[in-house]
Design brief:
This protein is of the alpha/beta class. The protein has one domain: Glutaredoxin (3-Layer(aba) Sandwich). The chain is 37% helix and 18% strand. It contains six helices and seven strands; from the N terminus they run H-E-E-H-E-H-E-H-E-H-E-E-H. The protein has a five-stranded mixed sheet with strand order 5-4-3-6-7, with helices on both faces. Strands 1-2 form a two-stranded antiparallel sheet. Helix 3 crosses helix 6. The protein starts with 8 loop residues before the first helix and ends with a helix.
């Protein structure tokens, strides 16, 4: 049986938005609306393309976005500057070893490979779905996932 949002360690892990310093959990966001989470790195051009589609999808559907930087060499300040420069206005999180382990244990090592554009969807009931790896989802496709 899949864990519920209240006992799912991935959803209850405390995350820090490097842009604001605010602490949150994916469960809190999902209680307010569906969530798309993408693992990424600043240097990843595929990730940037996917995040541009996420930006456009926000015009089509109501959902939360979270980007989790899984490159252990990147730092808060660079991630903040990247999000600002690119105009991405949702929470950005630097994955520590514990969060990276939660992601790997849940989805496999591919979720820690940014060029594969790993992303997962969290429904308001707390269920989690890994979306197809390696696929750039268009804004319309993202909206369809949210609304489906």
């Amino acid at each position: 049986m899949a864990p519920t949002a209240v006992d799912d360690p991935l959803l209850t892990a405390e995350l820090v938005d490097v842009r604001t310093g605010e602490t949150f959990t994916l469960a809190e966001l999902a209680a307010d609306g569906p969530v798309i989470v993408e693992t990424m790195a600043i240097w990843c051009t595929n990730c940037k393309s996917q995040m541009n589609e996420v930006t456009a999808a926000h015009e089509l559907a109501d959902f939360h976005s979270v980007s989790i930087d899984v490159d252990p060499t990147e730092i808060d300040e660079d991630l903040v500057a990247y999000a600002a420069r690119e105009g991405f206005d949702w929470p950005f999180v630097l994955a520590d070893a514990e969060l990276a382990t939660l992601l790997r244990d849940r989805f496999g090592t591919a979720v820690l490979n940014p060029p594969g554009m790993p992303k997962f969807f969290i429904r308001t009931d707390g269920s989690v779905e890994l979306l197809p790896l390696g696929d750039l989802l268009s804004a319309d496709e993202i909206a369809a996932v949210i609304e489906g």
